[in-house]
Amino acid sequence: MTRATADRGRRRFLSGLGALAFIAAVPMAAGARPADPLPSWTAGATRTAIVDFVQRTTSKGDAFVPVAERIATFDNDGTLWAEQPLYFQFLFALDRIRALAPQHPEWKDQEPYKSALAGDVKALALGGEKALGEIVMATHAGMTNDEFRATVKQWLAQARHPTTGRRYDEMVYQPMLELLAYLRANDFKTFIVSGGDTEFMRAFAEHVYGIPPEQVIGSRMKLEYRLTGDTPALDRKPVMEFMDDGPGKPAAIGAIIGRRPLFAAGNSDGDLQMLQWTTLRPGPSMAIIVHHSDRAREWAYDRQSAVGRLDKALDEAPRRGWIVVDMAKDWKRIYPDAAASAANGAQPAPPPVAGGSPTLSISRSRK
Amino acid sequence: MTRATADRGRRRFLSGLGALAFIAAVPMAAGARPADPLPSWTAGATRTAIVDFVQRTTSKGDAFVPVAERIATFDNDGTLWAEQPLYFQFLFALDRIRALAPQHPEWKDQEPYKSALAGDVKALALGGEKALGEIVMATHAGMTNDEFRATVKQWLAQARHPTTGRRYDEMVYQPMLELLAYLRANDFKTFIVSGGDTEFMRAFAEHVYGIPPEQVIGSRMKLEYRLTGDTPALDRKPVMEFMDDGPGKPAAIGAIIGRRPLFAAGNSDGDLQMLQWTTLRPGPSMAIIVHHSDRAREWAYDRQSAVGRLDKALDEAPRRGWIVVDMAKDWKRIYPDAAASAANGAQPAPPPVAGGSPTLSISRSRK
Hints:
Chains A, B: InterPro entries: HAD-like_SerB, HAD-like_sf, HAD_sf, TAT_signal. Chains A, B: This is Haloacid dehalogenase-like hydrolase. Chains A, B: It holds the Pfam family HAD. Chains A, B: One of its GO terms (molecular function) is metal ion binding. Chains A, B: Keywords: Hydrolase, Magnesium, Metal-binding, Signal. Two copies of one chain form a homodimer. The first copy, chain A, is α/β, with parallel strands linked by helices. Chain A has a single domain (about 40-345), classed as 3-Layer(aba) Sandwich (Rossmann fold). In chain A, about 40% of the residues lie in helices and about 15% in strands. Chain A is built from 15 helices and nine strands. In chain A, helix 4 (about 90-100) crosses helix 7 and helix 8 (about 145-160) crosses helix 10 (about 200-210). The longest helix of chain A has 16 residues, at about 1-15. Chain A is globular. Chains A and B meet through helix 1, helix 10, strand 3, strand 4 and helix 11 of A and helix 1, helix 10, strand 3, strand 4 and helix 11 of B.
């Protein structure tokens, strides 16, 4: 936003110069926005609806919205990055269980750790929320908040996705990166509002999405302040303080943002209430649902899958005017190319590891 | 920040023009920062320390801090606005009890409402946290979040402080308004991190402090999403979800901001841990404590008062290098003048009401 604001200030200044307007071409050429802000979006109704909405709300007229109120909220898993075969955060947890196992010899014979160590996701799922909760607590609590973020960063640098062989933070959606940048270039403030752990997402949100830590809203473990000598720390306690999912999303938006979004994006029923909260009010608003329809380039899944449901939100979409993004049709490409990622500071993905993931055997089949 | 950023972009562009630099004087004259960004701060050690810190951290050199990390956090009560004879939010609660009394005839004979209706703060205090909690729940929950903010705005427009006769939002500290603006002009992002109710503070933080809702962090009632027909709402439930005080402040900073502050300001032991969290780390940082030493123009209170303690924080200040702001000595003026407030969209304060507050007889004496 800073660059966009500076560009705007520069342009206003230039237009104000009047007689000196001939010089405008010089700095504009350097700072000019590319002709097409959404090159990875196929021309068509979806793309047109997005561009029209942004133009209407940012140009003088009936639908104009002041800059301060241009809030855009994005779900993360399945909306900004992939989520198959399981939420990446859960794959992180399983890798952490393996990494911590030498300090816990008892895990070899103790559920749910035994199944986690075996990478037996089906057995874990049979253990239900209690088993999954135990895996999460063992890997997401019991350290400081800074240590946790550093651990996630290290994992992101080393881990590779079991089927694509990519770094997980290279499995972000190129069209959504463009949408985030396009909204920010039009002075929208972009937030993540997602069920993932806040600190987990902060480990990559800034360098991958351009979203700073203070605009990442997720689920939270309880943080407890501790001063040891002259060294303060925030300890992550094994208590889930807040689940940022379903009706929790508008609640978190109210608690932390304090304005209703003008734009929201999601991909499951966990986003249903956020989309309602965004669009069920007077004035302009827009909501999109990323629909995973692309078996060839990503995954195809619909109303019920390993990572949740997209059922009520799909039913409500037509009467609420929510745009369902058809990944296969609306997106020219899925992921950024490795060269572009490297230029952004991320490491290019290595070739897929022969024999699948080094850490996990996923027994679920791709639909 | 938007205007400052635009100004900076403009200046960079101008300096880049080289041969055309002669025109720079034209827009600079219009947008130039005043020579003195802190006119209400007395020349002296405190003021010098603040200016030096901002210059060192924003100029190239050993102490330079990137823009993204320039986080400044401010307590509200007693730091940005006055807090005597009692927290203004509690005076709001007492006014609301009176306003709601016709719908609750039983309150006439029922504590703590009876004492609240009589404005008998001493009797209320004897009821302890339970009594105060009941008053807070009766006035801060049981409506939607939007309704609550509107009620606070309406109260701010009508209520007058019992001894100054000013609007409460005109009892903000002019030197602190200048400090907020000075930090923002240097690309600091300013947050409120205060024990007050988040939504209560949002009712005035934007127009009075220039701090948008998403940068206001306070205590929170639990919010619950409800959809009635096609109308969604966030209900304020009578449950204190989070107390943003003491060790809760660094916890909230970790949960919501996700970066350690570079600068923090407080005025009581409720800010102790925030100041520690800000300054006990490598690299530059600064913390200030507003010390209410001004009996003539404001109030004079110290280690123990009706609104809390300033005890441990004052003890730690010397060895932590925290700057204790001596209100009587360091501030040329306390409040903005009414004309300036009116120009900012606020109403000028009427003359003090004869006979004291229309709604409250405060029995505590000023020290």
